[in-house]
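User: Here's a structure from my thesis project, written as structure tokens. My advisor, Dr. K., wants to see whether a designed sequence matches the one we expressed. Can you design one independently, without my sequence as a hint?
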């Protein structure tokens, strides 16, 4: 297949390596302001992989010409943080093809909805195959430009849904060419809520706030940052997320259970599962509180969960407390800037039964 990957960060570079090494023609694109990694790959003609990925993988094109990157693509992976989804969608306008499938990787909460709105499409328009995954398939970091280290590759539980879900099977078939661990979710609300980052990151950040500020993040985020108190807060958030899924009519897998399936955890527990997790053992803490574990996961994850739960009549005291604390700590009104289901086509006015039916 010909595969275009939009976004040259950690996840995008890892995906480009794996699809290229599997024998597919890969293009990697990004905005000009994110040019360092792109330039290194363009100069060498390949990506170097380390740890779980080894060797080099050739890249057909790496650059800032989007038309060239997506030309003839069978699959387009849109890989970036939640706050980049709208910009990526706007850039992609005018470049869609009915021959390609488009996947937001990962959802980051509501990603496929944001993408379709940015593309100027009605959410139920099924002209194009557009969807999302619940998570990245990797734990990965760029070591240097053109070199990606993948410490964990998701073994199971990579949930996928298209919007509308009638086209999920088409998207899934293309993703399973390289990711056989991908499986169909009921719909994009399931993939969105299954994203575990908002459950884990903000709780650990806030309960280690003084340590982060005093040491500049000089500790292991999960190994040392997850204590009994942190574990209880993460579990309380997860319980509320699971209750919201039940109200919507989808099963959300508890994060420790999913972590074992995916290969991050050796046991499905909240304390030892994370502070002794095989996939998290060397994860360094952020140097500052002004980091995407709060600035992305609170407004684009927890606020989305809270607002949707309010519509469904599901109480979320733990989620709401973390949103409020994060807003105070970073002097930012995260609820005001948070992600919600769009007012158009009137999601806010729908009853729970109508949302489920839609």
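Assistant: Designed independently from the structure alone:
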């Amino acid at each position: 297949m010909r595969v275009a990957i939009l976004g040259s960060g950690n996840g995008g570079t890892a995906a480009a390596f794996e699809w290229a090494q599997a024998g597919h023609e890969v293009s990697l694109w990004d905005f000009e302001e994110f040019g360092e990694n792109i330039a290194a790959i363009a100069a060498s003609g390949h990506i170097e992989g380390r740890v779980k990925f080894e060797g080099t993988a050739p890249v057909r094109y790496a650059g800032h010409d989007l038309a060239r990157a997506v030309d003839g693509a069978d699959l387009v992976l849109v890989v970036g943080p939640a706050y980049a989804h709208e910009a990526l969608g706007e850039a992609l306008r005018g470049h869609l093809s009915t021959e390609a499938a488009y996947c937001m990787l990962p959802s980051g909460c509501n990603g496929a909805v944001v993408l379709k709105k940015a593309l100027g499409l009605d959410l139920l328009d099924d002209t194009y195959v557009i969807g999302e995954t619940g998570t990245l398939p990797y734990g990965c970091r760029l070591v240097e430009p053109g070199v990606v280290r993948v410490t964990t590759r998701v073994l199971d539980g990579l949930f996928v849904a298209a919007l509308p879900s009638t086209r999920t099977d088409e998207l899934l078939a293309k993703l399973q060419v390289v990711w056989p661990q991908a499986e169909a979710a009921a719909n994009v609300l399931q993939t969105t809520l299954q994203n575990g980052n908002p459950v884990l990151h903000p709780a650990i950040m806030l309960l280690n706030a003084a340590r982060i500020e005093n040491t500049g993040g000089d500790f292991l985020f999960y190994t040392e940052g997850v204590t009994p108190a942190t574990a209880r807060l993460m579990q309380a958030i997860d319980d509320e997320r699971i209750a919201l899924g039940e109200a919507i009519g989808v099963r959300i897998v508890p994060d420790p259970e999913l972590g074992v399936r995916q290969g991050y955890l050796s046991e499905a527990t909240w304390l030892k599962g994370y502070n002794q997790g095989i996939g998290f053992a060397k994860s360094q803490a952020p140097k500052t509180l002004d980091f995407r574990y709060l600035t992305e996961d609170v407004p684009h994850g927890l606020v989305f969960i809270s607002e949707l739960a309010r519509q469904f009549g599901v109480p979320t005291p733990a989620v709401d407390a973390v949103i409020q604390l994060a807003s105070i700590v970073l002097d930012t009104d995260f609820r005001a800037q948070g992600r919600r289901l769009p007012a158009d086509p009137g999601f806010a006015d729908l009853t729970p039964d109508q949302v489920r039916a839609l």
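When you compare it with your expressed construct, this may help: The first helix runs from residue 10 to 21.
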